């Protein structure tokens, strides 16, 4: 009987372990309230929109720079480009 009495104190620690496992089993939605979850989702949408806007601005800047380079080409560069295309008078 002495052995049975020694095993009883171990059970409360096992119950505590199962209680912590149950707490860890909660998902994020259950842990956060709806307001905080909504704020996180809005923040995610804002970050996506900002990254898309930056990508569009970068593409527009690249296009303008290319246009500016084309506009500022010298006669020699234009002639060389024309001859590379195979449309030169002597090709």
UniProtKB/TrEMBL annotation:
It comes from the Bacteria. Residues 1-10 have a biased composition (Basic residues). Residues 46-74 have a biased composition (Basic and acidic residues). Residues 1-27, 46-91 are annotated as: Disordered. Pfam families: DUF3886. InterPro entries: DUF3886. This is DUF3886 domain-containing protein. It comes from Brevibacillus nitrificans.
